[in-house]
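User:
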Amino acid sequence: MDTGLLNKPVKKALVSMAAPAAFGMLMTFLFQLVDTFFIGQLGTKELAAISFSYPIYIFIVSFFMGTAAGVSSVVGKALGEGDSTKAQSLTTLSILVFMLFSVLLAVAGIFTIQPTFSLLGATAETIAMISSYMLPLYIGMFALVGTLIGNAALMSKGIMIQTTVIMAVGGIINVIFDYLLIFGVGLFPALGLQGAAVATLISWVSIFGLMLLVLIKEDLFALSSLHSFSQAKVYFKEIMLIASPAIAAQVLNPIAIAVITRMVSQYGDNAIAAYGIVTRIESLILTGILALSVIVTPLVAQNYGAKAYKRLDQVIAYSGRMTVYWGLFFFAIMVLFSQPIIGIFTDSKEIIEYGQLYFNLVGLSFPAFGLALITTSFFNGVQQASLSLRLTLVKAIIFTLPLAVVGAWMGLTFIWIGIAFANVLAAVYAKRLLNGWLEANHSELLMASPLLDYFNDIRSLWSRCRFSQKSQAK
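Assistant: Predicted structure:
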């Protein structure tokens, strides 16, 4: 089966897949920032409340993103081998099983709100706000999970435009209901902080309904594809073989964020509000890197299934350089414009200063962060989720947490420095693991010179600029 991922030039495939994925993420993150802006109008305490909720929300999302990575890998491999029937069964089984599991997880989350957020350092007053915010999110979690799994399966087939449009529509729905329900307009009650969560719930359900229609149209979802319990059991084991380490790898990052949130909270509401704002802005400006990390797994999985090993080398080379360029560009943007950007969400001088310092220090490590992330996605694609897990374990437990904890003893600035150093060390370790895999598979990429590739890119860009100037002069 040719889904366009096996024959299209690798560079073109990366761009054509990453562009709509990035646009979809951009819309999602942009709408989250609008959400943050609206909540910011309610006050600093409300901003602090969503900052406390962020690591728990990200933990749950990351858990199922790990599941989605496993689904993307096994479905992509099945499509690369030409087995579309198996791909349909894998997708259907994954959506049903993990949506059910999300319901059980949501019930547990609802009954543990108070002890969970107490551990993160939230006060009784803040926990009351958090509870009103998290309850609707827990109720709608099943729809978010169905969307994540379905989107991963569709990307494995190279279907990007439809999912991007669906995400954009969902974001628009979220923003509209944000305004209506947070502040109260017409017949809609003013629910304050809880209104933002209810708007998100409505958006999730809408997105899942639309995504399910596309899945059925593309023959990736059909209850009839699950012929027997024994077959479903075999397929589930195959999914979990990749998904289990991917899940473990994904949840380590929000655990690290939760620990950092706890350490930042000792410096007051302004510090925790700043951390909540910068993490959302960071997600927005790193959209290109995040999109690449998402699409690399299905692209690699299909080519790995088809045994197109030279194309795997090209995926590594092109995605790595694209990541570095994106990271450096947006580091420069934030150094120059972080003050007015953060100022959109708050007029607190102290919050803005904390945020500026974050981007000046952590921003320099954006390329390193991206390289480590791309490497984990590549390992998932070649069915080496254990290597992906090892990389994430080392980054979170050996680098990020110890460096951030040591930094916390010295001041908030040193927490930011610890995060930056952890990103750089993770990139170095990622290169070591990747070289080991390349050597084991006799890759020609080991003979290439990355510095020469960067030099050639710069020279090519310079030549194009000069040609453009000459053309304009004529």
